[in-house]
Amino acid sequence: MRGGGWDEGKLEELRYIYATDVDEVDEGRPVWLMHTMGHYGVANSVALEMAGITAGTPDPPGGTIDRDAAGQPTGVLKESAMGLVTRLIPRLGPDQQREGIRSLAGAFNAECMTGGKDPGITQDTWDAYADVLADGDLTVRIFALWSALDGTIEEVRAYAERLAAFTRPYESTGDDRLIAGGVKLYIDGSGGARTAWLYDDWNRESTGTDTGNRGYPTMDPDELRERFRAYHDAGLHVGMHAIGARAIDWTVESIQEALAATPTRGLRHSIIHSNIPTDHALDAMAELQRDWQAGYPEPSPTFTWWIGDTYAGNFGPERALRLNPFRSYQARGIIWASGSDFFVTPFPARYGVWASVARQPLLGVYGDAPYGTAESVDAETALRSFTVWAAHQLFLEDKVGTIEPGKYADLAVWDRNPLSVPTEELRDMVCEMTVFNGEVVFRGEPVVP
C-alpha cells in the first residue's frame, strides 16, 4: 500500500508520522507513505522488515535512517535511504502512466494552464508522453529533463553524448509539444527533511537549533561537479536542484567554472528551487544571465504557503525572510521561472501568483508572517514568472508566454483581472476558458456574481 501528501507542519503534534502509527492500521500489509516534499517518507514495520532495515543498518551515502533515542529505526527514511524501501515497490505500468498524463493535462487545462516542465524522467515516461501526444490528448506543452545516470564518470560522459544527439532545445524544440530539454541533477535535499546543504545549523520549531545538522550534499561535491561538466561539455541544458545556501553557492560556482572551461552561451542552466541564495549567489546569477544566458532560478512560490509552516519551523526567523527572494531578483535584473513542484504543492498557477505577493503560510503555526513582505513582488511580476519567463526556460519564449502576432494561441481566460483585484482574491480566481494551440480545451461554467 502506498500513499503520500503528509506534512508534519499540518499536524497538531508537529511531528513525523512513524512506523508505530501506521502499524496500528496496516492490517499486516507493507505500507510506504511519501511526504509531500518527496524527500522523505515513512515505512511501516512490515516494509522495514522486507527491506532488511534494522538498528544495525548504516545510513546509505546521501541519506538518513531516522532513529529513536534507543537507536531503533522510526520508519522515517530521508533522501537516498528511501530507496531501501521504494526499490521494492512495483513501478507504474504504461497504461497507468498514460492515464495519469491524460488526467493531469485535463486538470492543468481546467486551471488555465498549457505547459509544464517535468524534471527527472526516464524512457518509459517519455514513451508514455509520446503515446498520449500521438492520441491527440496531450493538451499541454511538456519540457522534459532526463534523469541523471548513476554510473562511472566515463559512463556519464557517454550517456551525455547520447542524449545530446536529440536534446538540444536551443537548436530545435521539435513540434513544440513534447520537448527533450536537458538533464536534472541534485546537489542537496529538502528544507522539510532538514537535509538541504547549509552553512549553519538547521532550526527546529523556528527558534530551536538542530545542533550539528547543516544538511549534506547528495554525493561528493567534486564528483558531482565533474558530472555536471560532462553534461555541460556535451551541450546539454542542466537543471540543478539546490535548496540550501551552500548548495546554491556551489551551483552557481559550478556553472561559472564550466563556462570558463567550455564557453557556451545559451544553455540556460537553472537552479531548481534556489530557496535561500546568498548575496554572492544573487550577484553570480545576474552576471551569468547577462553574459551567458545561464543561472536562472526556478522557484516554487507556493513553498511559503503549502509547506510554509514546516519551512518556517526549519529555516528559522532569519533565513525565512530570505526564502524566495523575488524582490532581490528583480532589483538585480534577474528573471525567474516559477512553478509548483507538484506534487510537493498544488499545481494551480493562481496559488503561486498569490503566494509571490502575499508570502503567507497555510496555518500560521509560527505566526502569520514568518516570511515578511520585503521580498514580495506585485501581481504583474508574478504573472510574468509563470508566463513569459517560464516560457524562456522551456526555450519557447518566441512562441508562447505572451499574446503577440505569430505566437501560438495558448490563452487563459479568468473570471477576474489579476492586475486589479485585491491580493487575497488572486488564489480564488476561476478559469473560464483555456485555449491551447488555437483550440478550446476547457470551458468552465459561467460564474454568476
Brief description of this entry?
The chain is an alpha/beta fold and 449 residues long. The protein is built from 14 helices and 16 strands.
3D structure, described in words:
The chain is α/β, with parallel strands linked by helices. The protein folds into 3 domains: 2-86, Diaminopimelate Epimerase, Chain A, domain 1, CATH 3.10.310.70; 94-392, TIM Barrel (Alpha-Beta Barrel); 411-443, no CATH class. The protein is built from 14 helices and 16 strands. It has helices at 19-23, 45-51, 83-86, 94-109, 123-134, 153-164, 221-233, 245-261, 279-292, 308-320, 326-331, 349-358, 379-386, 388-392, and strands spanning 2-6, 32-35, 40-43, 63-67, 73-79, 115-121, 141-147, 178-186, 202-204, 208-210, 237-242, 270-273, 296-298, 411-414, 431-436, 439-443. The protein has a 6-stranded parallel β-sheet with strand order 6-7-8-11-12-13. The chain has a 5-stranded mixed β-sheet with strand order 1-2-3-5-4. Helix 5 links the parallel strand 6 and strand 7. The protein is globular and about 65 Å long. The chain starts with a strand and ends in a 6-residue tail after the last strand. The relative contact order is 0.10.
